[in-house]
Amino acid sequence: MLKKIKRSEPRPERDIIKERVESTFKPILKDISGSEEKDKKYKETISTLENVKALFTKLFNRLNNLAEDNNAEDIKKIEKLLKDLVG
Asked: What is the three-state SS of the chain?
Protein backbone atom coordinates (compact mmCIF):
# COMPACT_ATOMS: atom_id res chain seq x y z
CA MET A 1 0.00 0.00 0.00
CA LEU A 2 1.35 3.37 -1.03
CA LYS A 3 1.33 6.32 1.33
CA LYS A 4 0.64 9.83 0.16
CA ILE A 5 3.57 12.16 0.51
CA LYS A 6 2.46 15.10 2.54
CA ARG A 7 4.01 18.35 1.37
CA SER A 8 4.79 20.82 4.06
CA GLU A 9 2.87 24.03 3.78
CA PRO A 10 4.64 27.34 4.39
CA ARG A 11 4.08 28.71 7.85
CA PRO A 12 1.51 31.47 7.82
CA GLU A 13 3.85 33.82 9.74
CA ARG A 14 6.35 33.63 6.89
CA ASP A 15 3.69 34.62 4.38
CA ILE A 16 2.52 37.51 6.54
CA ILE A 17 6.07 38.74 7.07
CA LYS A 18 6.85 38.53 3.36
CA GLU A 19 3.69 40.43 2.41
CA ARG A 20 4.35 43.18 4.95
CA VAL A 21 7.97 43.63 3.87
CA GLU A 22 6.84 43.82 0.24
CA SER A 23 4.20 46.42 1.08
CA THR A 24 6.83 48.44 2.98
CA PHE A 25 9.17 48.42 -0.02
CA LYS A 26 6.45 49.38 -2.56
CA PRO A 27 6.67 53.14 -1.86
CA ILE A 28 10.47 52.98 -1.83
CA LEU A 29 10.57 51.32 -5.26
CA LYS A 30 7.62 53.31 -6.68
CA ASP A 31 9.62 56.47 -7.41
CA ILE A 32 12.46 54.69 -9.20
CA SER A 33 10.58 52.21 -11.35
CA GLY A 34 7.53 51.99 -13.52
CA SER A 35 8.79 53.19 -16.87
CA GLU A 36 11.38 51.71 -19.19
CA GLU A 37 13.57 54.81 -18.85
CA LYS A 38 13.50 54.71 -15.04
CA ASP A 39 14.09 50.96 -14.99
CA LYS A 40 17.24 51.43 -17.06
CA LYS A 41 18.46 54.41 -15.06
CA TYR A 42 17.91 52.79 -11.66
CA LYS A 43 18.62 49.16 -12.62
CA GLU A 44 21.43 48.67 -10.09
CA THR A 45 19.54 50.49 -7.32
CA ILE A 46 16.40 48.44 -7.93
CA SER A 47 18.41 45.22 -7.90
CA THR A 48 20.11 46.19 -4.64
CA LEU A 49 16.80 47.17 -3.04
CA GLU A 50 15.31 43.81 -4.05
CA ASN A 51 18.25 42.11 -2.29
CA VAL A 52 17.72 44.28 0.79
CA LYS A 53 14.01 43.41 0.75
CA ALA A 54 14.90 39.70 0.74
CA LEU A 55 17.32 40.24 3.62
CA PHE A 56 14.68 42.05 5.68
CA THR A 57 12.27 39.18 5.08
CA LYS A 58 14.91 36.71 6.30
CA LEU A 59 15.69 38.94 9.29
CA PHE A 60 12.06 39.16 10.38
CA ASN A 61 11.59 35.42 9.92
CA ARG A 62 14.70 34.87 12.03
CA LEU A 63 13.40 37.24 14.71
CA ASN A 64 10.12 35.34 14.72
CA ASN A 65 11.94 32.04 15.24
CA LEU A 66 14.14 33.52 17.98
CA ALA A 67 11.09 34.93 19.76
CA GLU A 68 9.35 31.53 19.62
CA ASP A 69 12.49 29.93 21.08
CA ASN A 70 12.70 32.67 23.76
CA ASN A 71 16.29 33.35 22.67
CA ALA A 72 16.78 36.80 24.20
CA GLU A 73 20.57 36.70 23.82
CA ASP A 74 20.51 36.46 20.03
CA ILE A 75 17.72 39.03 19.81
CA LYS A 76 19.87 41.44 21.82
CA LYS A 77 22.75 40.87 19.37
CA ILE A 78 20.47 41.79 16.48
CA GLU A 79 19.24 44.83 18.42
CA LYS A 80 22.83 45.99 18.99
CA LEU A 81 23.69 45.51 15.32
CA LEU A 82 20.63 47.49 14.22
CA LYS A 83 21.44 50.30 16.64
CA ASP A 84 24.96 50.44 15.20
CA LEU A 85 23.51 50.58 11.67
CA VAL A 86 20.97 53.33 12.20
CA GLY A 87 22.86 55.32 14.80
From this structure: CCCCCCCCCCCHHHHHHHHHHHHHHHHHHHCCCCCHHHHHHCHHHHHHHHHHHHHHHHHHHHHHHHHHCCCHHHHHHHHHHHHHHHC
